[in-house]
Amino acid sequence: MTRRDVFLSKMETVVPFAKLVAVIEPHYPTSGRRGRPPIGIERMLRMYFVQQWYGLADEAVEDGLYDSQALRSFCGIDFAVESVPDATTLMKFRHLLEAHDLTQAMLAEINAQLKEKGLLMSKGTLVDATLIAAPPSTKNKDRGRDPDMHQTRKGNQWYFGMKCHIGADDASGLVHTVVSTAANVSDISQTAALLTGEETRVGADAGYVGVEKRAEVKAKLTEMGQVIEWHIARRRKPIREMAEGWQKELILAAEKLKASIRARVEHPFHVVKNIFKHKKARYRGLAKNHAQMVMLFALGNLYLARGKLCP
Asked: Model pTM greater than 0.85?
């Protein structure tokens, strides 16, 4: 078996297709008296997942199904009976998911299954953000960049694109909340939107120093009636300027312990960017890219938990 066969066989086992089809079914068009009948929801969903796992455009998914026996077997397509759905059909299915916010509903359904298995505890949250580059070219009909994207500087380098903020379980690293903004929006400003209301502790890097003093965070905690223990990394410069001694060694040991827990929030980013090859925004506009990011992190949760979900 090839690596693709092994990967698809594992995902065939862990993806709850029946429950995800039930989420889409109320919004999916039914067959009428005229025109060809719509393609089955599960087949279109499998094609959509192939697109996300391998970072393909709509036309590339169609070509890949013609070329790869493994992809055709996963999607249940037999050339002796039928042909491959074209790229336009996949595009319309993707627009359907975006119009009804179904990727968010599928993330909730997948996380509900993970909670039933005891893999998503939601008693602690790790928050972080990553930059997703967007095409900076102005060689298009409007002679301009995507108005929903923005540029920002990280270190000494400038980036143009969007920023994806996530809240993840601190025990498993599985993502429960996804927020997408332009790249120039600060990480700390989205913290309140990443809290579920069930956690008692929150961890973050040094970019979130002072988050517990922000008005929107205080308002949400008052609304939830929750007391949160904050584990925010200290800034490096004050620690570096401290005199050598046991106090500095104690602080460094505490920071190392916090970093070992906080590292779990980086695992979903690794899956989405390095394994699913999503390092650049594919679509124009923040809404379409946000729907894709939510679906990528939902599939990333299944990938991270595949070892415990496989029988």
From this structure: yes
Give per-residue pLDDT as tens, 69-111: 999 999 998 887 888 889 999 999 999 999 999 999 999 999 9
State the pLDDT confidence band at 33, using cuts at 50, 70 and 90. Answer: low
Q: How confident is the model at residue 53 (pLDDT cuts 50, 70, 90)?
A: very high
Domain ranges, ordered by start, for the chain: 3-100, 121-283
pLDDT, one tens digit per residue, over 133-173 is 998 888 888 888 889 999 999 888 999 999 999 999 999 99
- Is the domain defined by 121-283 classed in CATH 3.30.420? yes
Full 3-state SS string of the chain: CCHHHHHHHHHHHHCCHHHHHHHHHHHCCCCCCCCCCCCCHHHHHHHHHHHHHHCCCHHHHHHHHHHCHHHHHHHCCCCCCCCCCCHHHHHHHHHHHHHCCHHHHHHHHHHHHHHHCCCCCCCEEEEEEEEEECCCCCCCCCCCCCCCCEEEEECCEEEEEEEEEEEEECCCCCEEEEEEEECCCCCHHHCHHHCCCCCCEEEECHHHCCHHHCHHHHHHHHHHCCCCEEEECCCHHHHHCCCCCHHHHHHHHHHHHHHHHHHHHHHHHHHHHHHCCCCECCCCCHHHHHHHHHHHHHHHHHHHCHHHHCC
CA atoms within 13 A on the CB side of 91: 10
Give 157's strand partners.
154
